[in-house]
Specification:
Elements: E1 2-5, H1 22-26, E2 31-35, H2 46-52, E3 55-57, H3 59-65, E4 68-70, E5 85-88, H4 96-104, E6 108-111, H5 126-145, E7 153-155, E8 158-160, E9 164-168, H6 172-183, E10 187-191, H7 198-203, E11 207-209, H8 229-243, E12 248-251, H9 266-271, E13 277-280, E14 296-300, E15 303-307, H10 316-332, H11 348-353, E16 354-357, E17 360-361, H12 364-374
Parallel strand pairs: 1-2, 1-4, 2-3, 4-5, 5-6, 9-10, 9-12, 10-11, 12-13, 13-15
Antiparallel strand pairs: 6-16, 7-8, 14-15, 16-17
Helix pairs in contact: 5-6, 5-10
């Protein structure tokens, strides 16, 4: 069997596999093809790939001769491996036009951003591994743009108060932002509609902002539950109050397949102190700040709003290291001891991540969205 890795385009600096991941596949009797310079932006040269056991080839050769094609971002028009297997991050809940093309091209596609939220699936959970990097990098960017120190300083020149950081969303990215902010000496507050994350926030040294009157979410499996309009009003007032008192606001709240909730309206930005920084990691799905623009920096009322939807690309070496491990863990589920393809659709991870197969859309959630769009 042959696995091919395509070079990412645009401003993407990551690669699906690094040279260090190749020996694992070679030992399984798998041939690996790497598109020329695919790892250049991740500090991995063609020579290193060859030394690790891979072969350097053109994109056209890889698409024609690979049984499985790996790509981080959704494939372009000239990157669809017709009749082959594609493993990628397809964002299928919103990228429905691509899903239709994949089905029409008889591509058996797997999207690792649809990995089930189970303990066993954590080894292939690309969203969590990349959220770890995003949460860390977001804080460093905020610290570099903020005209203040993060930690408290005491000197003969006086005392500098520590910066205040407000984090919206206590998922993987939010918790990593909390941990990093605390290491830099900031005072950190965290808001999340899920009371289940309160203890995690406190264990990392953050203060959990709790809105009184929320619905019980203990039976929701860690997910948010729909709240009353009265609760939402209190939530907005509380977020506004804490945001205007903060030097940094880090936004991480997203809902799969939907527009990100607006938690920081223009009125809140208007009331924030000059020099404050908003890092909006939800920029790719609309943003948690009303003024966010995807992959742009907006300065409004002397408040800097950074809409970065791909912080992991700013740390391509370690991001690719983590991605490569996620990809190889997933491939291990698909390859038997002799190096042959073994697709077990009784496996919850294989079944849960499969988007298209045999010319049809397999994922029920994606089917429902496309049926609604076509109605």
């Amino acid at each position: 069997m042959t696995i091919g890795v395509l070079r990412e385009g645009g401003k993407e600096n990551r690669v699906a596999l690094l040279p260090e991941h190749i020996p694992f596949l070679v030992k399984k009797n798998v041939s690996v093809l790497i598109e020329s310079d695919a790892g250049a932006s991740s500090c991995a040269s063609n020579v290193e790939y060859v030394d690790a056991g891979a072969a350097i080839q053109t994109k056209e050769h890889i698409l024609e001769n690979s049984d499985i094609v790996l790509k981080i971002n959704p494939p372009g028009e000239n990157e669809i491996p017709a009749g082959k297997i594609l493993v990628s991050i397809l964002n299928p809940l919103t990228n429905t036009a691509l899903v239709k093309k994949l089905a029409g091209s008889d591509v058996t596609s797997f999207s690792l951003d649809m990995t089930p939220r189970t303990t066993r699936a954590q080894a292939v959970d690309i969203l969590s591994s990349m959220a770890t990097i995003a949460g860390y990098k977001a804080v460093l960017v905020a610290a570099s743009k903020l005209p203040n120190f993060f930690p408290m300083f005491m000197s003969a020149s006086g005392t500098i108060k520590p910066s205040k950081v407000l984090i919206l969303g206590a998922g993987v990215a939010g918790l990593q932002s909390l941990a990093t902010s605390k290491k830099l000496g900031a005072v950190v507050e965290v808001f999340d509609v899920r009371l289940a994350v309160k203890e995690e926030v406190k264990s990392l040294g953050g203060k959990f902002i709790e809105v009184k009157g929320s619905k019980d979410d203990t039976a929701a499996g860690g997910y948010a539950v729909e709240q009353t309009e009265e609760y939402k009003k209190k939530q907005a007032e509380l977020i506004h109050k804490h945001a205007v008192q903060s030097n940094v606001v880090i936004c991480t709240a997203q809902i799969p397949g939907k527009k990100a909730p607006v938690l920081i309206p223009k009125a809140t930005v208007d009331a924030m102190s000059p020099g404050s920084v908003i890092i909006d990691m939800a920029a790719g799905s609309g943003g948690n700040c009303e003024l966010t623009k995807k992959d742009e920096t907006v300065i409004h009322n002397r408040v800097r709003i950074i809409g970065n939807s791909n912080f992991p690309s700013k740390m391509p070496v370690d991001a690719s290291k983590m991605l490569g491990k996620n990809f190889t863990n997933f491939l291990e589920l698909m390859i038997d001891k002799e190096g042959n393809l073994k697709l077990d659709f009784e496996d919850e991870i294989i079944a849960g991540t499969c988007i298209t197969r045999n010319g049809e859309i397999q994922n029920e959630r994606v089917k429902e969205i496309i049926s609604f769009e076509d109605a």
